[in-house]
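Q: Got a minute? One more chain.
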Amino acid sequence: MHNTRPLRCAAIHDLSGVGRCSLSVILPAMSVMGVQVCAVPTAVLSTHTGGFGTVAVRDLTDYLGAALHHYESLGLSMECVYTGYLSSVSQADLCRAFFQQYPDAMKVVDPVMGDNGKLYRGFTAERVRAISELAREADVITPNLTEAALLLGEEPPTRALTVGEARSMLARLSQSGAGVVVVTGVTLSTGEQANICFDREKSAYWKSVIDYLPVRYPGTGDLFAAVLTAGLMQGDSPAMAMDRATRYLEITIKTTFGYGTDPREGVMLERTLEWLTRNELPRGYETL
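A: Always. Here it is, folded:
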């Protein structure tokens, strides 16, 4: 069957019209990497919630179950189910229903909950618990450092991590379920900024070092997880998939920074998507 159609991924995320994040970056990035994205929007928003004033928003919780039911009636197969921002506990439950319907699919959870040591606005303890439970059912998780601490029930670290601490965090996250754990935006005591990864199957720890730029753009975590997921679906090892995503983000952030655009508008992936169509093997990862 696979040779007659692209690999298919159900992407359960919100859709923001302006601001380049979630489905608006996931769809183009995964598509150019040869994956058919079946978008399952959890909510639609006029813009993302980071600084554009009062957002027009429609919650689509009732739609998730109906879409799943329709796909079931069609006998539609998926090679991957990939979840991101969820607006409620019931959305996490519906994602679990997607996982159950596609038991052979690769399950990717980007546990969107907070950043910079703080929960995102409106996040409750119940929602954190529901997303943490969903993450335990995943094959791959992609938390940032704050979310990694939340998943472990710990305080987010406020200083650089030693290599030993970084490896311990990855291993403990993997113990609760996922065979591939990638933590983004980690400052190491070596002075490096890095994305770090544990591949349980090989018992291997990896890092991809990032050039630091003094700017933050929304949606970069979504774009990173999308490229990582598509890479894994196409046969990259976890270290290669992480590095492909890291290098692509680096190129895209540097390009955007060079144009000096309003950071609220996210990164200019329109200028860099072509890089993802080249099948060059990234070799920027090192052992951690």
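A: Residues 238-259 form the longest helix (22 residues).
Q: Perfect, thanks.
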